Amino acid sequence: MSWTITVDRGTCMGSGICAGSRPDVFRLAGTASEPVVDRIEPDEDVLDLADTCPAAAITVRDEAGTELGPRP
Amino acid sequence: MTTADERVHTYPFNRPEGLELSPAYRDARVAPGMIRVRLPFGEPAWLATRYEDVRFVLGDRRFSRALAARSDEPRNQSYRRPGGILAMDPPDHTRLRVLVAGAFTVRRVEKLRPWVRQIAAGLVADLVAAGPPADLVDAFALPLPVQVICELLGVPAEDRHLFRAWSDAMLSTSSLTAEEFVRNERELNAYMAGLVAQRRERPADDLMSALIAARAENLDRLTEEELVELCIGVLVAGHETTATQIPNFTHVLLAHPERFDQLRADPDLIPAAVEELMRFVPLGAGAGFARYATEDVLVGDVPVRAGEPVLCAVASANRDEGRFEEPEELRFDRQETQHLGFGHGVHHCLGAPLARLELQEALRALITLPDLRLAGDPVWKTQMLVRGPRELPVAWG
To answer: In this prediction, does ipTM exceed 0.90?
Structure first.
């Protein structure tokens, strides 16, 4: 079971919160963030970052493509 | 190479009155490397002034805030300010941040827009009913964010006279003795602990109740002390900065009447105007909250040694000619909007979406006052972390 992470670079405001918190998962490329890796092992911390991204630009999905985060 | 300028400069550079950015920042930006500065208390520090350097230091995990508490942190006053969440590093910082940040995301905050717009319009209606002149701070800039954050957090807005004094003292740089500061801190703590106790008995639909529930669910996630500290942080940070930026923005727009007219003619420009004003206004009296290197790190071409502090001058970064075209101009048509006015990295302002909303709705309400103008000299705050008018006398019509 692994998760995929996407960052909507149009919505991202480049706050650097995700890249600063988890440089193993996110990095800033120019003005916006992007995932460093295609897939990650399930990780509550990353789900928290998706929940609290100020721009709601991070999406986390499971293998079936079901959206896990941001949680409503 | 190291910095060409070996002197240790006396800091902060800015005058507390007004919103000028000291020319010393420009000198530092165009010089190679970083300069060394010394505040009234604490050890000397590196000062990052360029956009690239500031963004790098604020965004890199090798720089720590927690290490500051174990060092002789550069500061304006003899005593140490309790840093709360701003004194923590991940993962502790993340654990507390997520508890609060969920309430302030763009999605959640956007739902509050009609309510905030109504509050702002109501305050302007009261101003009009009472007639000019008025103090924009007391009659508009303060009550708007106070009402919003009190409602969201669960603090009675009627207590404003109480917590304003404590909040002022929390953010004071040098007007208090250490004893006064500690007494003030205890009073504010006792006040907030009292509110938390009440909410625990009678939960409501507010952030304080949500935090209490989060602690009840998992006692390890949030200690009682952290719970009270978080509520204080949200209350103080949640109104003081916005209440200061509203008169700052107004003051800057009154000095740029063609820009004010532009907003009146086209209110759709307001979101862009708020971003530009966040870039343009040097809110802080000086850079604070030093970041400590946890290992040797190269900042630009300056080797910062493990254990050395770096101060990040965001106001200078926001005027960096290497990043912004005509940085001294106030323009609402910038493509490159990524200012550092809300900071950067893990400590990026967690209330930024709410602050944006309040500032936008404040401007939307203020442009309805015809011929808004100064009706006297502003009285400036002094000895505070943030700069801005304490009183801004205005007239209209």
So the answer is: yes
